[in-house]
From TrEMBL:
Any one GO biological process: proteolysis
One of the record's GO cellular component terms: vacuole
Signal peptide limits: 1-25
Superkingdom of source: Eukaryota
Gene Ontology MF term list: dipeptidyl-peptidase activity; serine-type exopeptidase activity
Xref: InterPro entries: AB_hydrolase_fold (IPR029058), Peptidase_S28 (IPR008758), Ser_carbopepase_S28_SKS (IPR042269)
Pfam family, one: Peptidase_S28
Upper lineage: Eukaryota, Viridiplantae, Streptophyta, Embryophyta, Tracheophyta
Family (UniProt): Belongs to the peptidase S28 family.
Protein name according to UniProt: Uncharacterized protein
Protein keywords: Glycoprotein, Hydrolase, Protease, Signal
Length: 524
């Protein structure tokens, strides 16, 4: 969440020389993958650095679950109904100016989503920034990382955490940063051409920002943008089965039945086999296993799972032990998943370290607004049938108390779901991504949507390349099963950005042409 006081002075808190590659914050409540392509200004770009700032968020922390929204606001107060709250808090953001054609280049706003924002990823975003001579700025989502209004994350204190609040934060930050640049380059009243980017939940925020604040951005890229809130998201599991293929799907289903049988017979030793003996709740354990399987397809590493488990089934090797090795070695080891994050007792902790707070925070957003309950379909499911609606509702009640419930009808009514009525928003999805069914996949002139089709094209493939975790420098597409498919969609995305930025320029942004009537793009 990115909120900054309009007209406030920049308070430089820390200058971070990023010497190690970072994890890209993509994933819808799954832990961010570790390693990979690093950050702009980090190890992937030797000798550069980016600056971490904070500014005072002057947007009041109003009640987010009230529906009579009064959407006019000034720099120091925001009213909703009869309730106003004028407290402020610091929020962190990053900027990267190496490619910026000052002072008239465009501004790329990259939205950090449901995790700590530890820098700007050196993904295909960097390639586009260089092409367009853009500054890149990335604000942290409120409550996440170092941008929390409260030290204690009680349910009462979390009531100001919502997508609506995040959008207002972005609007105020946009104005704040524009004024900061104007002061830096002595350009009174200038308005740059802005373009908004985001992936996953942040991809939805990117689309919703253009929808709600069309005057503040020339357009948006919603990479794997999950704009449809879903109560029972059975399509997630169905896509896992489809992406796995017949052999791998059958092996995974058999493994699930074997684990269910061992739990039903009271043999909890199976949890120890997976390194998850601390998960007393069987549902929590089964959700861990479901996520572990899903991650192979979501992030473009299907062979990491399917090769060993299909081989085990053919050879008569113990399937449960084979899957347990994958979970421990790949999901927990390489990917960096936390077993504790699946424990409802752990999620009830209201004072987690900042690096671990994202689990509780995202579950609150799930339980209060967007749902995305990844339940097992009635027939032919890959995950255990015990991961049902009741499991999710019980988790929400257990972790956050009574009264926290995701009103997906109101969320979709407010934003439009896949019937979003915006313009100049480009959607991109990977064919193997289980989240694509919550994105807009029907294309139109004003809302173009592209599906990148290849066997390891998953979540945010357009930005991250293949596989999607760990990340790759500049979103390298060479390891995609069809680099041509990725590059074709990237060219289409760049063409839209080029057109929409030029239209902004024609409407008076940047005051005078910088590179003629169109932005100069030589190659893709």
């Amino acid at each position: 969440m990115a909120s900054r006081a309009v007209g406030a002075a920049v308070a430089a808190v820390a200058v971070l020389l990023l010497l190690a590659p970072g994890a890209e914050p993509i994933g819808l409540w799954l832990p961010p993958p570790t390693g990979g392509g690093g950050r702009l200004g980090g190890a992937a770009a030797p000798g550069r650095f980016h600056v971490s700032f904070t500014f005072d968020n002057a947007i009041p922390m109003f009640m987010s679950r009230t529906h009579n929204v009064h959407e006019t606001f000034g720099p120091h107060k925001k009213a909703i109904g009869t309730s106003a709250d004028h407290r402020q808090f610091n929020q962190r953001y990053y900027e990267f100016l190496d490619y910026y054609r000052a002072p008239k280049g465009p501004i790329f706003l990259y939205i950090c989503g449901e995790s700590s924002c530890n820098g700007i990823p050196n993904s295909y975003l960097a390639v586009m920034a260089k092409k367009f001579g853009a500054a890149v700025v990335s604000p942290e989502h409120r409550y996440y990382g170092k941008s929390s209004p409260f030290e204690s994350l009680t349910t009462e204190n979390l009531r100001f955490l919502s997508s609506k609040q995040a959008l207002f934060d972005l609007a105020v930050f946009r104005q704040y940063y524009q004024e900061t640049l104007n002061a830096k380059y002595n350009r009174s009243g200038a308005d740059s051409s802005w373009f908004v980017f985001g992936g996953s939940y942040a991809g939805a925020l990117s689309a919703w920002f253009r929808l709600k604040f069309p005057h503040l951005t020339c357009g948006s890229l919603a990479s794997s943008g999950v704009v449809l809130s879903v109560y029972n998201y059975t399509d997630f599991d169905k896509q896992i089965g489809e992406s796995a293929g017949p052999e791998c799907k059958a092996a995974l289903q058999e493994t699930t039945k074997l684990v269910d049988g061992q739990l039903q017979s009271g043999r909890n030793a199976v949890k120890q086999l997976f390194g998850a003996s601390t998960l007393a709740n069987d549902g929590d354990f089964l959700f861990l296993l479901a996520d572990a399987a899903a991650i192979a397809f979501q992030y473009g590493n299907p062979d990491a799972l399917c090769s060993p488990i299909v081989e085990a089934k053919k050879n008569g090797t113990d399937l449960v032990e084979t899957f347990a090795r994958y979970v421990k070695d790949y999901y927990i080891g390489t990917f960096g998943a936390s077993v504790a994050s699946y424990d409802q007792e752990y999620l009830k902790n209201t004072t987690p370290p900042p690096a671990e707070s994202a689990y509780r925070l995202w579950w609150y957003q799930v339980c209060s607004e967007v749902a995305y309950f990844q339940v097992a379909p009635k027939n032919d499911s890959v995950r255990s049938a015990k991961i049902d609606t009741r499991y999710h509702l019980d988790l929400c009640r257990n972790v956050f108390g009574e009264g926290v419930y995701p009103d997906v009808f109101m969320t979709n009514l407010y934003y439009g779901g896949t019937r979003i009525a915006g313009s100049k928003i480009v959607f991109a999805n990977g064919s193997q991504d289980p989240w694509r069914h919550a994105s807009k996949q029907k294309s139109s002139k004003e809302l173009p949507s592209y599906l990148i089709e290849c066997s390891n094209c998953g979540h945010c493939s357009d930005l991250s390349g293949c596989p999607q975790a760990p990340s790759h420098i500049e979103g390298d597409s060479s390891n995609c099963s069809s680099p041509e498919a990725v590059n074709k969609v990237r060219k289409q995305i760049v063409d839209h950005i080029d057109l929409w930025l030029s239209e902004c320029q024609e409407q008076g942004h940047d005051n005078e042409p910088l590179l003629g009537s169109r932005w100069s793009i030589a190659t893709y």
